[in-house]
Amino acid sequence: MKRLWVMALMLILITSEAVSAESLYKIMHKDKVAEDWEVHADYPLFTNLENEELQNIVNHRIIQKLEHTAGRVQKGAADFTGVPYLYYEESAVYQEKNFYSVIMTSHISRGNRYNSTVTSVNFEDRTGGEVKKLQDLFDMGKLNKEVKKVLDADPDLRAEQPFAGVRENTAFYIKDEHLVLIFNKFEVAAGVHGTPEVPVPIKGLLKTEINAPQVPIPSVT
């Protein structure tokens, strides 16, 4: 009996934790079908961030990204009729303390041609928090050296072309003291590997500390 009670308590705690995490945002669905194109997207919109102004900026960027990609698909379908374009968008939200990453993966196909690209919206949810780009947080020179080491050591991630370097808009998230870069399909490996994720230890790469407490600067009178 005691064992059943403990299991029930654990289930309640796990459920509560999941609800708490999901309550920060809601998942939206967009489905549009025309003769020459289809759009199917799942994406988050934040509703309960601490910084409401930042929340509006983040949500705007998410919607703007979707509309831009959908617009490209519709234009392509109008320019090249006959074989429909299919656009699927999937999203994931990663949290490391107050640092959030919205990973948005676009899968676009036409006939037997497929491509997948990844973007991210990264931000710190705090007073004065901002949307952060990769180069805002990390030393790109050091990062390129570390990523090249990882790619050279893994035969599955070796592309036919030499590694051109980490793009400044490469999608990323942070997890367990690692920076995880997500590359586009075909960017660093054969397309069969989808959108490869490359984790790199974060130590020594940061320009500025993430999740550091922010001390307000006193006004001068």
From TrEMBL:
- Source domain of life: Bacteria
Which first-to-last residue range defines the signal peptide?
Answer: 1-21
Would the keyword Signal be found if you checked this record's keyword annotation?
A: yes
Gene3D superfamilies named among the record's database cross-references: Fervidobacterium nodosum Rt17-B1 like (3.30.565.40), Heat-shock cognate protein, ATPase (3.90.640.20)
What Pfam families does the record tag this protein with? DUF3298 (PF11738)
Which terms are listed as keywords in the entry?
Signal
The record places domain DUF3298 at 136-202
Instruction: Output this protein's name.
Output: DUF3298 domain-containing protein
What species is this protein from?
Answer: Halobacillus litoralis
